[in-house]
Design a protein that fits this description.
Length: 568
């Protein structure tokens, strides 16, 4: 294998003076505010991480990449790097036009000279690139639900790098890494790609890989976008820094990669190789289930766990990087050592803790053994993921007007405050409509805005370790689901359906609104002249008929206790 390419890799940036000039001129251009994923892609396009790409893919390049992993000129490139925009924006742009690309704060990062504009066949892209048009795949879900309908393609003129305020000293462009290797005389360097905290198994694997390849080691974790639900990169980088001390001094380097992963298994592994080649690496570790997205909607793995290795094996010569392949590493108790799963001495006891099991132990505050991880790493993880009984959560009541949501929510709030420990906030339907949503009515659109606002506030409370109790009608399943997703990124979401029947609510008519609704004096009244979609699988369903409020609130407390959210 050849030494890392010692000449710098081409970047797409213009000189400082030209950039200043372009920035002023770009003020007159139509501009597109990049999504977080597009900012990641643009950074690697501009700094040479995606060399030989010179911009967002044109339609011909896109077709080639989707169909057979090659650009129109035959160059190997497995991942569509496209600029997706919405139809309204696309209507303002024609091929031949320059557009300014801005980050989320409005800073101009680059100019795209648009050559192509087209509507992609997303089902085909999903099938060919990700292996199935299945929404359980995070990138397929993104493709259909987040990405815009139209793609723009063309070359990029780079003005400035996206700004990062975190871990600046740990971020390197391909040319900075190449220069670093050159300076230290590292001619053979093996990269380890990761989106997870490093535990002992990873350390053993990376050690062995460096030894096998007779190379120095680069820990090259992704800090751009990884799989939804992963440990956040702030925590991970603190964990990596803690583990760095465990490697022999001056053999190993840590550098952060602002890549937006797609979790595309084999194709992604090959893409990772090309990116590492561009960063001056000579070797690349591919383990079990590289960039795997988890299970499909039928509960099966999307890819064979070793398909990524097969893919990289096939193309490594063409890319010019050598794969170091690894089986899954497990701990052998008798030997007090890690082994690849296919080299375990016969008859020995194998210990392993899966990612799911680790998360359970963290959640429940259980022991995490020393053979599995380093105390410094466990300490960091416990700081970010305290046991469930110390985390924030949201209780989300839903049901008809007059079903008893507010009354039960109030009783629950008081009981939780009596227990103490975490601040409790009640976001009651009526109160929210007075303070947060006073301009809104009761159309589907307005109800959705109202519920999303409640969801946003509850997610912030949950993130910051508090308890949010929400009690709106929230009649639509899809909106409740999106609020659940927003909150579950930070803590538990406990949906409680207050299942009092519409007949009972109308009979009670505590506010006299049902009468007005029947008389047509209130329009779009839920249950009378507007829909209510019952939750299919709420965490708890309360049928309030003949039950005391106190009893209902107690049932919610029991549920919270069984979920480990409060201690008895
Ligand atoms: S939603 O659908 O979740 O946005 O509704 P929400 O914010 O919970 O507001 C419901 C309260 O507003 C009163 N109200 C109506 N409810 C339903 N439909 C119509 N058209 C309507 N007009 C006013 C009603 O008192 C609800 O209070 P609750 O607390 O649910 O009894």
């Amino acid at each position: 294998m050849s030494a890392p390419n010692l000449v710098p890799i081409p970047e797409l940036y213009v000189s400082y003076d030209s950039a200043q000039k372009l920035k002023v001129e770009a003020g007159d251009l139509v501009s597109w505010d990049l999504t977080p994923r597009q900012v990641c892609d643009l950074e690697l396009l501009m700094n040479g991480g995606f060399y030989p790409l010179k911009g967002f893919l044109t339609e011909a390049d896109y077709d080639g990449v989707v169909e057979n992993m090659r650009l129109a000129d035959g160059t190997l490139w497995p991942m569509p790097i496209t600029l997706d925009v919405n139809e309204d924006f696309a209507a303002k742009v024609e091929p031949g036009q320059d557009i300014a690309l801005r980050d989320q704060e409005g800073v101009i990062l680059a100019i795209l000279s648009v050559t192509d504009k087209w509507e992609p066949n997303k089902a085909r892209e999903a099938e060919k690139v990700f292996g199935a048009d299945d929404l359980a795949h995070p990138a397929v879900n993104y493709l259909h639900h987040t990405a815009g309908k139209i793609y723009l393609g063309g070359p990029i003129t780079g003005i400035q790098q996206p700004i990062h305020y975190d871990f600046k000293a740990r971020r390197d462009t391909p040319n900075e890494l190449r220069a670093y290797f050159r300076k230290l005389g590292w001619r053979r360097v093996v990269a380890f790609q990761t989106r997870n905290p490093l535990h002992r198994a990873h350390q053993e694997l990376t050690f062995r890989a460096a030894r096998e390849a007779q190379a120095n080691l680069l820990i090259h974790p992704v800090v751009g976008m990884t799989k939804p639900g992963d440990v956040d990169h702030f925590t991970r980088v603190r964990c990596y820094e803690a583990v760095l001390d465990k490697y022999p001094a001056a053999t190993t380097h840590l550098s952060l990669l602002n890549l937006a992963m797609r979790m595309a298994g084999p194709r992604e592994a090959l893409w990772h190789c090309i990116i590492r080649k561009n960063h001056g690496l000579t070797h690349f570790i591919v383990g079990r289930d590289h960039a795997g997205p988890g299970k499909n909607s039928a509960g099966e793995d999307f890819y064979d766990p070793y398909a990524a290795q097969d893919m990289v094996r096939q193309y490594q010569d063409e890319v010019g990087i050598e794969m170091v392949d690894f089986k899954h590493m497990v701990y052998v108790e008798e030997k007090a050592q890690y082994y690849p799963v296919d080299e375990v001495p016969e008859g020995s006891t194998v210990l392993n803790i899966s990612g799911t099991e680790l998360r359970r132990r963290l959640r429940e505050g259980l022991e995490i053994p020393e053979w599995f991880s380093f105390p410094e790493v466990v300490k960091e993880l416990r700081r970010t993921s305290p046991p469930r009984a110390q985390q924030g959560f949201t209780v989300f009541f839903t049901g008809f007007s007059g079903s008893g949501k507010s009354t039960i929510a109030n009783a629950l709030m008081v009981k939780l405050m009596e227990m103490g420990g975490r601040p409790v906030t009640l976001l009651d339907g009526d109160v929210v409509r007075k303070h947060l949503s006073s301009e809104l009515g009761f159309s589907k659109e307005h109800r959705d805005i109202n519920i999303r606002r409640i969801g946003y506030v509850a997610s912030e409370i949950t993130k910051n370790g508090g308890i949010a109790i929400c009690a709106p009608i929230a009649p639509y399943t899809a909106t409740r689901r999106s609020v659940r997703e927003m909150i579950e990124a930070y803590g538990a979401f406990v949906e409680v359906h207050v299942a009092t029947s519409i007949e009972e609510c109308e009979k009670r008519d505590r506010k006299g609104l049902y009468k007005l609704a029947r008389e047509g004096k209130i329009k779009e009244f839920t249950g009378i002249s507007d829909p209510y979609e019952e939750p299919a699988n709420p965490e708890l369903r309360l049928d309030t008929a003949g039950l005391e409020v106190d009893h209902c609130a107690h049932q919610v407390l029991l549920k919270l206790e069984s979920m480990g959210l409060i201690k008895a």
